[in-house]
Design a protein that fits this description.
Elements lengths: L11 E2 L9 E6 L5 H10 L8 E7 L4 E7 L2 H4 L2 H5 L5 E7 L14 E4 L5 E10 L2 H7 L2 H4 L4 H16 L6 H9 L5 E8 L4 E5 L8 E4 L5 E4 L2 H6 L3 E5 L4 E6 L2 E6 L7 E2 H7 L11 H15 L6 E4 L5 H11 L7 E3 L7 E2 L3 H11 E3 L1 H4 L3 E6 L6 H12 L4 E6 L21 H4 L2 H8 L3 E4 L3 H7 L6 E2 L1 H4 L9 H4 L12
Bound molecules: iron/sulfur cluster.
Iron/sulfur cluster binds next to helix 9 and helix 18.
Length: about 500
Amino acid sequence: MPDPAVSAPEPVLAGDGPRDACGVFALYAPGEHAATLIYYGLYALQHRGQESAGIAASDGAHVLVTKEMGLVNQAFDHAKLAGLDGHLGIGHVRYSTTGASTWENAQPAFQVTPSGGGLALGHNGNLVNTAALSRSLGPNGEKCTTDSEVLAELFAQDMGEAGGTGRGGLEQAIAATVPRLSGAYSLVAMDERAIYGVRDPHGIRPLVIGRMPAGGLVLASETGALDIVGAHRLRDVAPGELVVVDEGGLRTRRVASASPRFCAFEYVYLARPDHRTDETTVAAARREMGRLLARSAPAEADLVVPVPDSGVSAAAGYAQESGIPYAEGLVKNRYVGRTFIEPSQTLRQLGIRLKLNPLRDVLEGQRLVVVDDSIVRGNTSQQLVRMLRESGAAEVHLRISAPPIRHPCYYGIDMATRAELIASGLTTDEIRDFVGADSLAYLPLEGLEAGSGLPMASLCRACFDGQYPVPVPGDTVTGSEPTLFSLDEP
Ligand code: SF4
C-alpha cells in the first residue's frame, strides 16, 4: 500500500507512494460523438491519474482540446463535452512525473502544425532523454515543460521539415521521431482525420486495441476502458508498433525493433484487476502471486486479511493455497484521493486512518496474515501494523505480493527516490523490525513470472533488481533521483 511521505518538510499527501503516471484513450467511431465515449473511457482509467483530465476531438476539420485540473467528473460537464464535436479524438488522465501539476501541463498536449493544422497527443510513460531532445529543438524546446510537449514539438518540427501537410504527415513524423526517443511511452495522438497509437520498443507501458460494436476502433491503456464503451479487445499494440486509424480503417507498421520488457509492477499494483492481457487478467495474476507467496512464506495464523484494494486478489490466493480463512478486516475509504495533510505528528498518525479503518470484531485476538502489494518507504506499513495491534490483533504476519522495491522507476511511475526506499538500505529482518510485524516476507522475483505468465526476460522488473531495460545514466552507481531527467537538466 502507498506510504504517506511523513518526513517531507512540505504539506504531504495521504497515500503518497507508488503512483500511476497517466492513462490514455483514443477513439475513431464514425457516427458517434467521440468526446462522450472518451469521457467514459477516461472514467475507467481514473486510477492511473487523478491530477488532471483532458479530451481532444475532431469533426474532420478542426482539432479542439479541453483539459482541466481534477478528476474526470470535475473536469467535464455536459456543455464542455458538447463543445467537443466530432467522431474521433483522444483523452488523457494525468499524474505528473515530469513537469509540475498545472493546467498548462495537463494533456492532451496541442501543437499547431506547419501547415496550420492541429495535432494533439497523450502520453503514458516517461522519456529518459527529454533534456537532450528539448535542446535539439532550440528555442522551441525552451518553452516545453514536459516530455509530452517536447514530443508534440518534435512531431510538428518533423512535419515542417518533411513538408508533411496532409494525410501521412503526422504518421511519418511519429515514425521518424521514434528512433530518437529513449524511455517508456505509450502514446495516442491525432490530427483532424486520424488517430494514432505507438508503443516504445520495450512495450513498458500498456496499450491495447479494441473494436466498437458498429466497427469503430479504440486504443486504451487498459481493457476496462474498452469494456465501458462496449468495445471488445482485439490485441495489444505491439512493442515498437505504430497503428493508424482513419476512414480507411486500421493500418499498422513497425517503427522500431521489438524487445519486450513489460512493466511487472502493472501486475502488482498499477493496473486495475479487470485488465486483460494475452496471457491472463491482472486479478488472476495477483491470485497466482498470492498462492506462490503462501508456498514460499507460510505462516501459522487464523485469518488472511487483505489491504484493500490491490492486496485483495493476492490475499485470496494466499488464503486458497494455505487453507487459512480469508477475512475482510480493513475498510477502505474510497473517496480520499490525494488529500493534503499538514505534517504535524498528530496528523501524520491520521494518514493511514484516512484511508483504512480496522474492523475490531474481526481482528480481535486473531493471528493475522496481512497481504499488501508493496512497501515503499515503510511508514504506512508501520502505521498499519500499529493500528492492527491497537485493534486487538494477537499477531501480524506481513506478506508482500511483490519483491522488495530497491530502485526508483524512471519509466513513468512515481515511487520514491532511492534513498527513501526502505528496502534499498535495510534487510528484510530490519524492515520487519521497523514496521513492527511478527514476521515479514516478500514474493520471490520468480513470482512475477509465474503471475504474469510472461518469461522473466520479457518483464521490466528494474525497481526490484536494478536491471533497467533502457539505460539510466548513473542510477545504480550513484542512487540518483528521477529528477535527473527533468527539463532543468543543464
Ligand atoms: S522500474 Fe518497476 S515500475 Fe518502473 S517500469 Fe520497470 S517494473 Fe515498472
